[in-house]
Specification:
This protein is of the alpha/beta class. Helices cover 45% and strands 16% of the residues. It has one domain: 3-Layer(aba) Sandwich (Ribose 5-phosphate Isomerase B, Chain: A), CATH 3.40.1400.
Length: 148
C-alpha cells in the first residue's frame, strides 16, 4: 500500500508546493489541501486545516510550505501529535526523521530552490526513525504538551 502524504501551502509556498506535489504523485498517494493559486491566504488557516487532516489519520505524513517556512512551523507545532521540522538542507531533513520522527516536513517556498527542495524531500521521505533513546524523547514531548 502506498504511503499517504498530504501537502499544503499558503500563497508564498504555492509554486514550490506545485513542484513538490508533482514529485510526490509519482511515488505516493498525495492529497493537496490547498491553496490552489497565488491569491493571498492566511497560512494559519490552510496549514492548521491540513494538520487536522494528519491528526485524523487521513494522511500518514504532511509537507507544508509558506514563504519562509517559519509561520507554517509555528502553527503546525501548536497541534499535539504534530512534529513539524523546518528543513533547509538534506542533513536537517535526515535528522528530523532519524532522531525526531518528524511527521511534518516544512519548507520555505521563497527560500529554497527547486533542486534543493527535491533533495530535502527525498531524504525526508526515505529516512526511518531510529527509535531507542529517541523514542523516549518523543514520548516526553507528548507528555509535556498534554500537561500544559
Amino acid at each position: 500500500m502506498k504511503e499517504k502524504i498530504g501537502i499544503a501551502s499558503d500563497h508564498g509556498g504555492f509554486d514550490l508546493k506545485e513542484l513538490i506535489k508533482t514529485k510526490l504523485m509519482k511515488t505516493v498517494d498525495c492529497t493537496d489541501y490547498g491553496t490552489n493559486n497565488h491569491d493571498s491566504v492566511d497560512y494559519p488557516v490552510v496549514i492548521g486545516a491540513a494538520c487536522k487532516k494528519l491528526l485524523a489519520g487521513e494522511v500518514d505524513r504532511l509537507v507544508i510550505l509558506c514563504g519562509t517556512g517559519i509561520g507554517a512551523s509555528i502553527i503546525a507545532n501548536r497541534f499535539s501529535g504534530v512534529r513539524a521540522a523546518l528543513c533547509h538542507d538534506e542533513f536537517t531533513a535526515e535528522m528530523s526523521r532519524r532522531h525526531n520522527n518528524a511527521n511534518v516536513l516544512v519548507l520555505g517556498g521563497r527560500i529554497l530552490g527547486p533542486d534543493l527542495a527535491e533533495r530535502i524531500l527525498e531524504k525526508w521521505l526515505h529516512t526511518e526513525f531510529e527509535g531507542g533513546r529517541h523514542e523516549r524523547r518523543i514520548n516526553s514531548i507528548e507528555e509535556i504538551s498534554q500537561n500544559q
